[in-house]
Amino acid sequence: MTRSEVANERKSQIVKATVDCISRYGYNNFSMQDVARSAGVSKGIIHYYFLNKDDLMMSVLEHVASDISGLLNTGMSETVDPIKKLDLFLGTCLNIVRKTKEYYQVNMDFWTQINQKEEVRQTVAKHYRNFREACSQVIMEGTQKGVFREVNPYEYSSLIIALVDGISMQWLFDETAFDYDQVLKQTKSLILGNLLKH
After folding, report:
1. CB within 8 A of 145, min separation 6: which ones?
2. Cα(164)–Cα(94) distance, rounded to whole angstroms?
3. 82 class by beta-carbon count within 10 Å (0-12 exposed, 13-18 middle, 19+ buried)
């Protein structure tokens, strides 16, 4: 392995350990020693790769958002049918909280920092922009193909993401609140039913 590959692997190991610590202790309640212990490295190694805790936290935020973006892109390019694409997008978004619960918890911890840390606010806003853009593209494709009715794709994407976040957070707080699969099905039906040309 090259020095660069070793460095990337080590950084990834530290970032994943930090995700684990945030999900266990919360954003403000873990120490660099906790991360070092979880990653199986010394605190000195962490400081070699990351300037400080804020630098490490921004890397964690990028990692979490990148993982979620990767999940969203899976399968989207394999179909040209806008209905299937939107169904895939919705299914993936609504299942993120179940498949990667710890990442969703970490993401929520970052939301609590947006009033204290401008860099975090800007990064979270950028990721939401990316999600809205991905959803908007699907809606625009469907409109151009005459499958979806005319709507403002950016506003509609904001509505979709608000539904996804609201449902996901409720489930995260109380997994017994509702039948998740049933709500997922109803949400897809509601969104697609409202978008489709009749």
Report:
1. 82
2. 6
3. buried
The letter for the amino acid at 179 is D
Tens digits of residue pLDDT in 132-164: 998 999 999 999 999 999 999 999 999 999 999
Contact between 102 and 19 (Cβ < 8 Å): yes
- The reported pTM is 0.80
CA distance 110 to 5: 28
The burial of 68, by beta-carbon neighbours within 10 Å (0-12 exposed, 13-18 middle, 19 or more buried), is given as buried
Q: Please state, in angstroms and rounded to a whole number, the distance separating the CA atoms of residues 191 and 30.
A: 40
Task: Name the packing angle between helices 53-73 and 101-111 (round to 10°).
Answer: 130
Structure tokens at 79: 């179909």
* 81: helix, strand or coil: coil
Tokens of 135: 């959803």
Q: Which amino acid is at 127?
A: H
The pLDDT score that the predictor gives to residue 167 is: 94
